[in-house]
Amino acid sequence: MSERLCEQCFDAIDQRDWAKAGHFCQMAAQSGSASAMYNLAHLYDEGFGVDKDIQVATFWYQSAAEQGLDYAQHNLAIRLTNGIGIEKNLSRAAEWFEKAANQGLPESQHQLGAMYLDGNGVDLDIKKGIHWYTAAANAGFIDAQHDLGVLYEEGKLVPINMRKAMHWYLQAAIQDDAASQFNVGLFHDEGYVGEPNPQMAVYWYTRAANQGFVSAQFNLALLLEDGRGVAANPATAAHWYLKAAERGHHGAQLNLGILFFNGKGVARDIESARLWFTQASWAKNHIAEQALDALDQLRQRYG
């Protein structure tokens, strides 16, 4: 009976028949199915097929968690961390993250690692924090891979190790994490591990830039303008400067203004140059301020 109710619960969810899902998941949960409890909790969270009720959702997440369901343990821990449908309690959150982490759930391993590194809900323990970050990273969890890269690059909690930083950034970059792709590009650009490799910098900056990562768009434009790692291409450089400038990157605004002033990669356009110099000057960019002064002097002299 319980298995049949679970099948009906899951089938209704797959078919997005929320009324049936609410009915059958409720019955399956009451019959003791942890998976049904978890799904019912989600229905109450979203208000699908039942009246939205975060307290009831929390009750069912906890019921499933107490039966050992790792995702339910993780969700309960998140709710305890943020006080969603239950009183905020970081120490209890850590306990539930640890239960799921010990079952191999990377999301919980990462969260638990962060708690140990910050001393939130647990005693500060760098060794345990790195242990759990590494466990999650080895399981392919992108956030943990990126965060390990940051730890080893910055050296605030562990000794600086640029090779380890590069290793973990690369693992996340391969999985299309834009921030990590930018960092891999930067490591190649600056030669943080070995000799500078502008060709590889262009490759990784491009991947991050195509995902809208502003710093990558700017750095890629610099390489394209200068012809490092790729044939010089002022027009494409202008394209990437524009992308970054429109997102508020003041260095890109300045450089785009210079391209418009010189007619390099774009048609010469003094008013466009003035526009971008003005936006760059809002960040107290002295070069942009000087450029605006020069344009004003030219206007006064030649009209």
Task: Please give a handful of descriptors for the protein shown.
mainly alpha; TPR-like_helical_dom_sf; single chain; 303 residues; Sel1-like; Sel1 repeat family protein; Sel1_AlgK
Written overview of the protein:
- The chain is mostly helical and 303 residues long.
- The protein has a domain at 233-302.
- It is 74% helix and 0% strand.
- It has 17 helices and no strands.
- It has helices at residues 2-14, 18-30, 34-46, 54-66, 70-82, 90-102, 106-118, 126-138, 142-154, 162-174, 178-190, 198-209, 214-226, 234-246, 250-262, 270-281, 286-302.
- Helix 1 runs antiparallel to helix 2 (18-30) and helix 14 (234-246) packs across helix 15.
- The longest helix has 17 residues, at 286-302.
- The protein is elongated and about 85 Å long.
- The N and C termini lie far apart (88 Å).
- The model has no long low-confidence stretch (mean pLDDT 95).
- InterPro entries: Sel1-like (IPR006597), Sel1_AlgK (IPR050767), TPR-like_helical_dom_sf (IPR011990).
- Pfam families: Sel1 (PF08238).
- It comes from Spiribacter salilacus.
- This is Sel1 repeat family protein.
